[in-house]
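Protein Record: Sequence and Backbone Structure Tokens
======================================================

Structure line: whole-number tokens from a learned vocabulary of local backbone shapes, matched to residues.

Purpose: to set a sequence beside its fold so the mapping can be learned.

___
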Amino acid sequence: MSSVGAEESFFELGGHSLMVVRLVNRIRAVLGMEVPMRAVFEAPTVAGLLARIAEDGEQKTTGVLVPMRSTGDHAPFFCAHAIMGLGWEYGWLADCAPERYPFYALRPRGLDAGSAELPDSLSQMAADYVAQIRTVQANGPYHLLGWSFGGHVVQEMAAQLEEAGEEVAALVVLDSSPVDGRPTAEVRAGFAEQEDTVAEALTGEEHEAYVRIVRNNTKILLAHQTRKTAGNLLLISGDSDPKADLWRPLVSGEVLEHTLDFSHRELLLNSEAVRRIWDIVANELGLTETDY
């Protein structure tokens, strides 16, 4: 790419979480400046990032639960990070939603302290995140949404909330398939290749922490066994590849599936895909047209 305009979005140009880490590393090496990864998600243009650096380039977000929009009169949407995600991958989706809908991202532990204890299982991670969302919303009905690895996390969160007697009003899974804790050699090889790609691309203390998180996320996902939930499941699948039949034995209610002609990676990084996802969510959950 020969040039980038000051107002062009990093993500519209094809950026993703791994490239964010590379960008932060490059800024550190060339400019000698410490820029938190969250700054790129919050201000993904050259102009916006420069302004953010000037404003709070040294500040860091240390919490697991990060508000993308903390105000509104509707119950919040809680969104769990992807396997290589930092939570901010849901920023565009939050922007699509009317202002009455609060949005919170769940980011992985260990980003701000490389020696921090990481969860031993996906169930343990989900329990931690349930405790975190209850600091904002003590009781249901809850609205949970997750893409890829995040879909597994919110599904387990829903199971735990239901066991605690809470209502889950919305369980939205974006392009995930249930797992049985017995991954094939092909699946393991695919994840190993993904881990190697991350490890080879990154350097530095912060990046070592990120690689450690990705490897742990992979480990706990491969060992996880999807449990049954009581309510409906809203499933949005990419690559025009239906997955509802895989989920039906694990859902007591209905599996409401929509397939989109976007790749797995594009679902939250393509503005048209994100808009269609929100429209599906709004329609299936009966959110009123007067909100728009």
The mean pLDDT is 84. Strands lie at 65-69, 77-80, 103-106, 142-147, 168-174, 233-237, 255-259.
